[in-house]
Amino acid sequence: MITPAVDSTPDIVDSVALARLYGEPLFSLPQDLYIPPDALEVFLETFEGPLDLLLYLIRKQNFNVLDIPMAQVTQQYLSYVEQIRATNLELAGEYLLMAAMLIEIKARMLLPVKRRDDGEEPDDPRAELVRRLLEYEQMKLASRELDALPRLGRDFMLGQATADFEVARVLPSVSPEDLQAAWADILKRASLNAHHHITREQLSVREHMTHILRQLSDVRFIEFSELFMSRINAGAHVAVIVVHFVALLELAKESLLDITQAEAYAPIYVRLSYTIAHA
Questions:
Q1: Per residue in 156-179, pLDDT tens?
Q2: Quick one: CA dihedral 62, 66, 67, 69, positive or negative?
Q3: How many helical (H) and strand (E) elements, i.e. helices and strands, does the chain have?
Q4: Residue 11: what pLDDT?
């Protein structure tokens, strides 16, 4: 009697499988697993370029940048480049270019020194390299200082707050000083149009009050100075203007008129404090 084979594959696969190989679950590591030596490679790019490496070698040994010992520095530099070539040939290309420049400078320094035609000393073969190194070091220090500055999103975040409220607009009230200034302006205008007539005129405050109410009955409001313009244009005496102003104050005192102003130093308006029903 043959015993049927028992399926050892568990029902729950994803929760216990160590890995998947070609889509199939793998529950145990294979005994013949082979990992090539170069399957995992970690490369730490310590330097940002040839100038960075060269500056590191000079500063590490406290060499004077203006008087670089080319033989020793070139030897150390080539040693590092050989290590890069063994791991990453593409990255070593730019380092090889700098190595060729170092070798050229070293060779030029070994040649006999010839004076220039003008009698001056010949240029130092290291001058251009020194200039590039000093400029690179300045830029590197500047970048570090900029990176040390607080940065939005890295060192701090902007705080935001919203407030849900309404600001009620409060209109300024008309003070006695405002009325006094407006009245002084009216008197000034009246004095420019005054006619000198020697007459005796009976002035009635009630009559002027009625006239003002009649002026305001057909309009919503009227500017303060317009209440007096008809009198001024007719050549009324200052006394008439004074009585007209007193009539205005009496109407305001009896709450028959409203004197308003939209804002400070704005024109003053006068309107009826009640509504007249028209037939």
A1: 888 887 877 777 777 778 888 888
A2: positive
A3: 8, 5
A4: 47
Q: Treating both helix axes as pointing N-terminal to C-terminal, what angle do 205-217 and 238-253 enclose, rounded to 10 degrees?
A: 70
- Per the CB < 8 A criterion, the answer to whether 70 and 126 are in contact is yes
Coil/strand/helix, residue 236: coil
Starting at the edge strand found earlier in the chain, the sheet holding 257-261 runs 222-223, 268-272, 257-261
* C-alpha 62 chain-centroid distance: 44
CB neighbourhood size of 129 (10 A):
19
CB atoms within 10 A of CB 241: 21
Report which DSSP code applies to 124. P
Residues in the chain: 279
d(CA 231, CA 215): 12
Residue 4 DSSP SS3:
coil
Which run of H or of E encompasses 114? none
Residue 6: is its pLDDT beyond 60? no
Instruction: Report d(CA 212, CA 245) in Å as an integer.
Output: 10
Maximum distance among all alpha carbons in the chain? 152
Nearest alpha-carbon partner for 81 in 103, 107, 62: 103
Identify the band that residue 277 occupies on the pLDDT scale cut at 50, 70 and 90: very low
Q: Determine contact, residues 219/268, Cβ cutoff 8 Å.
A: no
Alpha helices in the chain (DSSP H): 50-60, 70-87, 89-110, 127-148, 176-192, 205-217, 226-233, 238-253
**pLDDT of amino acid 116:** 66
Identify the bridge partners of residue 269 per DSSP, sorted by sequence position. 223, 260
pLDDT in tens, 11-63: 444 456 677 777 777 777 777 766 665 555 544 446 778 888 888 888 888 88
pLDDT of residue 198: 63
Residue pair 37/82 in contact by the 8 Å Cβ criterion: no
